[in-house]
């Protein structure tokens, strides 16, 4: 399914074109080690100096103690919820540090790399640590889910996930990429989730011209029957990677021979990370496009072409509370402080409040029409396909009532924000008549102030900041906003059904 938001349209299977601006932005590493939230290595040098001044017997004891203590990375205290994750069997602690690593581990770099980003990614990977990565190939919100799936598969396989940037496939190829850490608070994620995480820019120099060869698994060809090649993505080109793909076995597909489900399960994918099943499924290699090399899937840096359709038990899994990729990863992916600040300013602006003042409790609505019109085969007319505003207003009142009952907070209709891709101004006039505020990025010149990425990102942040949320059924944009309001604020949520006349009547 295509994912559309506002005037932005994406086609998941469309080929990605080369971009005019082909230099990914670099992020300077100027923040201190502790402020980034990295575990702090023990100071061994002082311990060894002290050892030189004690007796021979004491020297042996102290040296043994120093070596033992050097193999841990003390971290700051975590919340109880984060501690639950740390205590779970899914958690993987930071790698041990050895004496020969001390001189090459400056304070400003994470413990899962040897040091600053290098020209070749292999020069920065630790021999005692295994890694996992994958690429993006959809609209932004689906790409966010893809990274959540990647990070969770890293938890399952005991590997450090490496995430790349977000690419502008849905906002125009001439727009620049935006890094994962410009959208999500990476230090906070590491601390609260207990899950190790790297960005590619921390591993390989974004300005490197060196092309690295890498063997990866081709999952896409094993789970669908129309494209007989790996899933296309521009990410390897941005990272200067030359990929040789090995077709995955058919058993990674969750429902064999069923064309309408493209899911592969996390545990079937994990089988390929371990030697028993990996060795049995080698061969059938597609040579890399640049150097023409045929490589087996890499064992040090495990790689899959596309993980959007990875799941634990069923498709559309983020709708369900059990979804492990949300429970162990997604709920800890909070916005950066900058995005949270701007989102709060926008909410206050549409309410006519001082932008630098406190943000009042509010409710957001996400109404998606756009390309959903292509899915209206059960409705006689487009008007019959989508829920009318009075039906949506009924859902808003349900949310208002629940918030008042559970939290004792009354949120009036004048504290409701509508976000939508609808372009009919008469429809927007009806929205205004209900007393709801409109999030209008053209009026607020969001692109001019912050760039092409911010309208879609800010709408997601604004939706997730409310105490209540009313979304559009089957929109992944709404699905993630619903989960954030539920789990971040213990909020009240509803999803509006559509597709035929009276679909949301109740």
Quick tags:
disordered N terminus; 19 helices; Rossmann fold; 14 strands; transferase activity; 506 residues; alpha/beta; 5-stranded parallel sheet; 32% helix
Which descriptor suits the 3D outline?
Answer: globular
| Total of domains | 2
Which percent bin holds the helix content? 25-40%
- Beta strand count: 14
Main sheet characteristics: 5 strands, parallel
Query: Which regions contain 5 or more consecutive residues with pLDDT less than 50?
Result: 1-106
Transmembrane segments: 47-67
GO molecular function, one term: transferase activity
Keywords: Carbohydrate metabolism, Fucose metabolism, Membrane, Transferase, Transmembrane, Transmembrane helix
InterPro entries: GDP-Fuc_O-FucTrfase
Provide an overview of this structure.
With 506 residues, the chain is α/β, with parallel strands linked by helices. The chain has two domains: 110-332; 337-496, Rossmann fold, CATH 3.40.50. The chain has 19 helices and 14 strands. The strands form four sheets. A five-stranded parallel sheet has the order 12-11-10-13-14, sandwiched between helices. It is globular. Mean pLDDT is 83; it is low at 1-106. GO terms for molecular function: transferase activity.
């Amino acid at each position: 399914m295509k994912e559309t938001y506002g005037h932005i349209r994406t086609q998941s299977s469309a080929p990605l074109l080369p971009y005019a601006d082909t230099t990914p932005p670099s992020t300077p590493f100027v923040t201190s080690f502790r402020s980034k939230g990295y575990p702090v290595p023990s100071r061994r040098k002082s311990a060894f100096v002290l050892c030189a001044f004690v007796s021979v017997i004491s020297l042996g004891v102290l040296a043994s103690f120093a070596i033992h203590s050097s193999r841990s990375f003390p971290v700051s205290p975590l919340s109880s919820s984060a501690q639950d994750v740390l205590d779970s069997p899914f958690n993987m602690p930071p790698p041990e540090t050895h004496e020969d690593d001390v001189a090459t581990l400056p304070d400003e770099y994470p413990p899962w790399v040897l040091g600053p980003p290098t020209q070749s990614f292999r020069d920065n990977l630790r021999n005692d640590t295994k890694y996992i990565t994958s690429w993006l190939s959809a609209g932004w919100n689906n790409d966010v889910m893809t990274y959540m799936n990647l990070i969770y598969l890293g938890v399952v396989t005991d590997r450090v996930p490496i995430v790349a940037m977000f690419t502008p496939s849905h906002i125009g190829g001439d727009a620049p990429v935006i890094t994962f850490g410009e959208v999500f608070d990476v230090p906070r994620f590491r601390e609260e989730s207990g899950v190790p995480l790297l960005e590619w820019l921390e591993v390989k120099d974004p300005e490197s011209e060196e092309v690295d060869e890498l063997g990866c698994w081709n999952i896409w060809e094993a789970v669908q029957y129309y494209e007989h090649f790996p899933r296309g993505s521009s990410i390897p080109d941005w990272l200067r990677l030359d990929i040789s793909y090995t077709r995955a076995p058919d058993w990674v597909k969750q429902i064999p021979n069923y064309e309408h489900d493209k899911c592969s399960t996390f545990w079937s994918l994990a089988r390929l990370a371990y030697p028993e099943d990996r060795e049995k499924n080698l061969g059938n290699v597609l040579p890399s496009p640049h150097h023409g090399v045929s490589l087996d899937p890499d064992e040090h840096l495990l790689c899959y072409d596309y993980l959007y359709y990875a799941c634990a038990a069923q498709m559309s899994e983020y709708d369900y509370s059990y979804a492990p990729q949300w429970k162990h990863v997604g709920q800890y992916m909070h916005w950066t402080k900058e995005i949270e600040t701007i989102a709060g300013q926008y909410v206050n602006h549409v309410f006519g409040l001082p932008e630098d003042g406190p943000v009042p409790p509010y409710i957001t609505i996400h109404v998606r029409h756009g390309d959903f019109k292509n899915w209206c085969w059960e409705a006689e007319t487009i008007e019959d396909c989508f829920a009318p505003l009075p039906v949506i207003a009924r859902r808003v009142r349900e949310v208002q009532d629940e918030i008042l009952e559970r939290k004792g907070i009354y949120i009036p209709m004048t504290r409701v924000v509508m976000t939508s891709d609808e372009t009919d101004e008469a429809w927007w006039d009806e929205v205004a008549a209900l007393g709801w505020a409109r999030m209008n990025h053209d009026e607020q010149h969001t692109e001019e102030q912050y760039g092409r990425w911010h309208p879609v990102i800010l709408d997601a942040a604004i939706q997730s900041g409310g105490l209540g949320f009313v979304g559009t059924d089957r929109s992944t944009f709404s699905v993630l906003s619903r989960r954030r309001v539920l789990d971040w604020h213990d909020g009240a949520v509803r999803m509006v059904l559509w597709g035929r006349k009276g679909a949301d009547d109740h």
